[in-house]
Amino acid sequence: MKGLFITSTGTEIGKTLVTATLCHQLKSSGKAVAALKPIISGVTDDTMQGSDTALIAESLGLPLNLEVINRISPFRYKAPLAPTMAAALEGRTLDYEDLIRACRIAMAENQFTLVEGVGGSFVPLVGDKLVADWIKDLGLESLLVVGSYLGTISHTIATLEAMTARGLPVRAIVISESGGDNPDLAKTTEEIERLTGLRVAVIPRLSSAFAPWASAPDLAHLI
Prior knowledge:
Layout: E1 3-8, H1 15-28, E2 34-36, E3 39-41, H2 52-59, H3 66-72, E4 75-77, H4 83-89, H5 96-109, E5 113-116, E6 124-126, E7 129-130, H6 131-138, E8 142-146, H7 152-165, E9 170-176, H8 185-196, E10 200-203
Parallel strand pairs: 1-5, 1-8, 2-5, 3-4, 8-9, 9-10
Antiparallel strand pairs: 6-7
């Protein structure tokens, strides 16, 4: 496997935590790993501190300078919106071919590359291209990151079935525990595992604001 695509059922679910956790765990075990979050919105070059890009850089032990930012997240938008809308507000259009090219270059140059998507698997990118098309064109298996909130089982099955219908293999599911009052996490995990037939790992709510990926449970076994 040259890499893995980190996707989700929606936004603010926990994809970046999963990406950073895998970066940290693979590096700690002596394996070479690179990571991209090529598209990021809601940031400027002056507000990258604390961003998803910064979290990934930190988990890889990289400094947060412009070279690293450009390497991890070459397509950046100010508005916290889907790429189509965020780009339009700036009078720009995401170049889909450039996106695919950037990912393929990273995959060719590195032994193992994690590519983190934007939002859920069916977020629009540009024209009729969705995140699902991006995954397909890279030829990568996915890790599907889902929440533990009420309704997540339906969202998980719907996303998984839609991805399967497009011929997109999902390697495993990671449940990132949602905040607030939610159904029993263990029972939710059992149901998702039973209904999907896939391996399911869980990341509970992590109290540490500093390097939360360092205290996350093992996810490397999913690769």
